[in-house]
Specification:
8 strands, 15% strand, binds 2-phosphoglycolic acid
Length: 260
């Protein structure tokens, strides 16, 4: 059986409701001819666009995710969004611990752990993002940082729950316009570290958790990245924000996997 490939984008704090709907419709149109049997596609728009996003495309075509979530279901948590509210609008995935949440908003591994636990309890797919900063990389601590982010972030996940857990490895130094190009060998090594950690935590169940790569993915490097051993998918930012370009990237990735 062929392996499933995971491809998705987080549109960050770009795209309003109308732009999100337009993007999703255009994307769906542009990929109509693509064989979807071994491909899982997802788009993670802003909170305000979630409901319209869900209404504009079916889950069987494109999964819709939220960029963050509170670990409580209700209460005096001004500015937070509850898992029940995300359920109400038909969200499939909850993204947790993106580098920007950790770095700019000071989220900790303990907070990510509570969010992962809560997301799985509410039957979302929990997409935990992990990744080292430039200085952690420079000081040779990348693997130690990844291990810690996984050990704490996933400490409340039982083996039974791993079926709805995805990991995205996103080195902070590779993300966004200021990001540095990422050497494929380096990605492969980190993916091995992550897989070993997941197996240590969950045994056999740890072998099936998808590990996506994200950070500076573009049309030039996507084929090389997706064909690395241990890379199960790509989590794309800027290079996926135009529907036609995202569709091209999807085709390119599938072709690269086919010819591997
Ligand atoms: P980028 O963003 O592809 O634009 O570097 C990736 C991300 O932040 O997930």
């Amino acid at each position: 059986m062929k392996k499933t490939i995971y491809l998705g984008t987080n549109t960050k704090m770009y795209k309003n409701i109308a732009q999100t709907v337009c993007f999703l419709r255009e994307l769906e149109q542009s990929i109509q001819d693509i064989d979807r049997r071994n491909l899982t596609l997802f788009v993670i728009p802003s909170y305000t666009a979630l409901q319209a996003a869900r209404a504009s495309v079916g889950s069987e075509s494109i999964l819709i995710g939220a960029q963050n979530m509170c670990w409580e279901t209700e209460g005096p948590f001004t500015g937070e969004v509850s898992p029940l509210m995300l359920k109400e609008v038909g969200t499939d995935i909850v993204e947790i611990g993106h580098g920007e949440r950790r770095r700019i908003f000071g989220e900790t591994d303990e907070q990510e752990m509570r969010k992962v636990k809560c997301a799985l309890e509410h039957d979302f797919t929990a997409l935990l993002c992990i990744g080292e900063t430039d200085s952690e990389k420079q000081s040779g601590r990348a693997d130690a940082v990844l291990r810690q982010q996984l050990e704490i972030g996933l400490s409340q996940v039982g083996t039974m729950k791993t079926g709805k857990l995805w990991i995205a490895y996103e080195p902070v130094w590779a993300i966004g316009t200021g990001g540095k190009p990422v050497p494929p060998d380096y990605v492969q090594e980190r993916h091995h570290t992550i897989r070993a950690c997941l197996q240590a935590q969950f045994g056999q169940a740890g072998t099936a958790i998808p590990i996506l790569y994200g950070g500076g993915v573009n049309h030039e490097n996507a084929s090389a990245l997706i064909t690395l051993e241990g890379v199960d998918g790509l989590f794309i930012g800027r290079a996926a924000w135009q529907a036609k370009r995202f569709a091209d990237l999807i085709r390119q990735v599938l072709e690269a996997v086919e010819n591997r």
